[in-house]
Amino acid sequence: MELTGQGTCHGSFGELLQGVLPGRKKFLVNLKIKNTSRARVHLTPSAYSNAKEAQFAESYRSYSKSYKVVRNILVDIGRHDDCYLEMESDIPVGKGCSSSTADMVASIQALASSLSLALKPNYISRMLTEIEPNDGLHHPGTSAYHHTTGELIARFDYVPPLYILGVDFGGMIDTVEFNRTLFTWTEAEMKHYAALLDEAQKSLREKDIDGLCRIATESTLLWQKVNPKHRLESVMQFMRNTGGLGIVNTHSGTYLGILYQDGVGDLNEVLRNAESAIPNCAMRLFETVSCHAGTTAFAKEDQP
Question: For an engineered disulfide with 258, which of 76, 198, 244, 281 has Cβ 3.0 to 4.6 Å away?
Fold first, then answer.
């Protein structure tokens, strides 16, 4: 008998803050957006799987990371089912918006649903981290998280309600390869990141949006030594001219995002103005998961 289950997971528009703490421990603070991955898992006893061999092979080719994490969990719990995955997602791929993490978390949720499993967050962290660095999206709310080891630093039942004008500078970045790159951090830089993380946690507890946007902007500036966005000053000037609160970075991706609060005006008009002010970049509007319904993310597909 075939068992099926479904799961969903939101992406993250880069990170409110990402850096390295004393002891060279990498960390990030995620920023969940409404864009989602939606997974459906099908479990079939091996004896009945021959007819679906092509589906299993295609599942592995298309969603190898998600397939691996599902297979690893099945092995852990002593099941030998064949499985294949169906996935739908509106999260940009290779851009730093956590598409791989969201796919994997949605697949784990789908597996848990199919077998009526209750999986603890720490276990999910371990299974995700065995595949690749991840963004802690399986924790509710906003997480401060060691993305290369899967350790939770802190979790907050709050996601700042923000609209994001995403400016994409093109190309794609592989998360695994990026995190293998060796960068040099001074003790002073690591202590500075520790202080910023303390400030970010305080701002999340107090729901201080201005404080979080300031920290996100500083994190973006500090990360220029790692993954420079060469037109950052143009984006910051447009942010200042249009009432933005700050800049958020997809630290291991290709986007910068200008942060706005509700009430700033017609964001589609802001987007059109940005296309003139910052030419030759793809533009897209995003919303964090806590924004009120009514604003629709808009993508310009004809941009480079």
Answer: 244
